[in-house]
Amino acid sequence: MIEKHFSFDTSRPGFDHPISLDKKGFSDMVQAVRMAEVMRGSAPKVLSAEEINIAKRSHRVLVALKDVYPGEILSEKNLGFKRPLKACEGVPPGEFKNYIGKIVTQEIPKDGIVTPGNTRD
User: Fold this and answer.
1) Nearest by Cα to 61 from 120, 112, 119, 98
2) Is 88 left (phi over 0), alpha (psi -120 to 50) or beta?
């Protein structure tokens, strides 16, 4: 929603007139709003092949901050997020809290990727 005062004569005395738009100013504002609507584009975002490739390389996954051994419990002290060197499927940042308290089922080296396959409830 946009609210803007309009005046036929912005030189008139009073509080509203000097801060209002005249006919040309209002027309310019409407054109700028229409341009902004075009610049926003359509709602659905479709990624190009290049964007998908970059996203695969630049995403972050849950990793062990130190060597973690079977039987250890995951916590804020041994979990973190990093960008993997190779594109991989990993646990996204939004799942961090869900992994706190899980038990490690197989050794995860420092910077190793934490997955559902190497942890359990």
Assistant:
1) 112
2) beta
Domain that holds residue 78: 57-120
Asked if residues 66 and 112 have their Cβ atoms less than 8 Å apart, the reply is no
Residue 37 lies in a domain: no
In a domain, 79, yes or no: yes
* Inside any domain, residue 63: yes
Task: Confirm whether 7 is domain-assigned.
Answer: no
Distance CA 99, CA 69 (A): 15
Place of tokens 């995951």: 74
Tokens of 2: 């946009």
Cβ-contact 108, 71 below 8 angstroms: no
Per-residue pLDDT in tens (0 to 9) along the chain, 121 residues: 888 999 999 999 988 898 999 999 999 999 999 999 999 887 788 889 998 888 777 788 999 999 999 999 999 999 999 887 666 678 888 899 999 999 999 999 999 999 999 999 9
